[in-house]
Specification:
Blueprint lengths: L6 H11 L6 H6 L6 H5 L3 H15 L14 H9 L1
InterPro entries: ACP-like_sf
Protein name: Acyl carrier protein
């Protein structure tokens, strides 16, 4: 059974999974409610890479049916801490 993450750790995990899609400074300053795909210009493959990184980092399988819950940093944190 996966350990529940704190919101702070989950936020760091999300931003870490976005590494390479923008500069570290911009990712650190990314508003929690910014739409990830639009703000960072993520195409489908970029988004899948992000989801795979998030899944690996959280040691939690993320199903395709969960993807609509991963639209912003805040929503990703909510998902990971639920």
């Amino acid at each position: 059974m996966a350990t529940t993450l704190s919101r702070e750790l989950a936020d760091g995990l999300v931003r870490s999974a976005l590494h390479g899609f923008d500069t570290p400074d911009r990712l650190a300053a990314l508003p929690g409610d910014a739409l990830l795909r639009e703000t960072l210009g993520l195409d489908s493959l970029d988004f899948l890479t992000f989801v795979e990184r998030l899944s690996t980092g959280a040691d939690r399988r993320i199903e395709e049916s969960d993807y609509p819950r991963l639209t912003t940093v805040e929503k990703c944190v909510d998902f990971l801490t639920s």
